[in-house]
């Protein structure tokens, strides 16, 4: 019960902070809160669902494969938010409602084939590589428009927007330029008016910087520690 109260209290606090950030930005449209469940056990995920969470994000296909049989969450929407290897595209397309981390045409093509086999049209976001960190994935800025055009031609994918994982800074204000840049890139793609492409979603902002991300236009924020507490050490 204490853990349930903790998740409920954390969720209420996060929702209040989201509303305050929207007010500062003069925005009224809601922000989708995705609870990132990396290293979170099924019991706590289920508790978050009981507290009202409906969007959940996983980073690793294998970890989700182990948890999935233990999760029965009516109305839940599952987002793949981590890097997907091309050989795991089939599982990603079958098990997830969204793939936020498309970072190559090869992956997009494999997701398209897998989505066709699953009889679905899969919403996807393109992950953009901002910050130059070798440890992170994503397409470079100059590759973004050609990839968006190529995905638009894939009949079983629906390109909804962009995602980014910018560098970590202790001061969230230092991340603001990266969030602003992602918004500008989405606006650039939107101006091309590519048929079938809608730049409605900007997935950016995590537990330490989501308020700044919302101020810069985030429509989806991906939070783990702010909801579930610090992750256990590996």
Query: What is the number of beta strands?
Result: 8
- Name of the CATH architecture: Alpha-Beta Barrel
Give a short account of the largest sheet: 8 strands, parallel
CATH topology, what is it called? TIM Barrel
Order of helical and strand elements: HEHEHEHEHEHEHEHEH
What is the average of the pLDDT values?
94
How many helices? The count is 9
- Domain tally: 1
User: How large, in whole angstroms, is the Cα Rg?
Assistant: 17 Å
Q: Class by helix and strand content?
A: alpha/beta
Strand order of the largest sheet: 7-6-5-4-3-2-1-8
**Shape, please?**
globular
Residues in helices, as a percent range: 40-55%
Kindly, what is the distance between the CA atoms of the first and last residues, rounded to a whole number of angstroms?
Answer: 26 Å
CATH class: Alpha Beta
What percentage of the residues does DSSP assign to strands (E)?
15-25%
Name the CATH superfamily assignment.
Alanine racemase
Low-pLDDT sequence parts: none
What does this structure look like?
The mean pLDDT is 94. It is built from 9 helices and 8 strands. The protein has helices at 2-25, 42-50, 61-67, 89-95, 105-118, 141-152, 176-191, 210-215, 225-228, and strands at 32-36, 55-58, 77-80, 98-102, 122-128, 157-164, 201-203, 220-223. Strands 7-6-5-4-3-2-1-8 form an 8-stranded parallel beta sheet. The protein has a single domain (2-228), classed as Alanine racemase (TIM Barrel, Alpha-Beta Barrel). α4 (89-95) crosses α5. The protein has 234 residues and is an alpha/beta fold.
């Amino acid at each position: 019960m204490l853990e349930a109260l903790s998740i409920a209290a954390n969720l209420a606090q996060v929702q209040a902070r989201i509303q305050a950030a929207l007010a500062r930005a003069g925005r009224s449209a809601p922000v989708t809160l995705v609870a990132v469940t990396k290293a979170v056990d099924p019991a706590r995920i289920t508790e978050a669902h009981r507290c009202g969470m409906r969007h959940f994000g996983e980073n690793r296909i294998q970890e989700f494969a182990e948890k999935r049989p233990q999760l029965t969450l009516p109305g839940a929407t599952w987002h793949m938010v981590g890097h997907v290897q091309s050989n795991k595209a089939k599982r990603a397309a079958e098990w997830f409602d969204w793939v936020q981390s498309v970072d190559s045409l090869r992956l997009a093509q494999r997701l398209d084939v897998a989505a066709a086999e699953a009889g679905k049209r899969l919403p996807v976001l393109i992950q953009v590589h901002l910050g130059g960190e070798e440890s992170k994935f994503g397409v470079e800025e100059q590759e973004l428009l050609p990839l968006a055009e190529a995905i638009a031609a894939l009949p079983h994918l629906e390109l909804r927007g962009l995602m980014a994982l910018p560098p970590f800074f202790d001061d969230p204000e230092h991340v603001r330029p990266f969030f602003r840049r992602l918004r500008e890139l989405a606006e650039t793609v939107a101006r091309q008016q590519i048929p079938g492409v809608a730049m409605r979603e900007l997935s950016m902002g995590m537990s330490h910087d989501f308020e700044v991300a919302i101020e810069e236009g985030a429509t989806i924020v991906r939070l783990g520690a702010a909801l579930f507490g610090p992750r256990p050490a590996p």
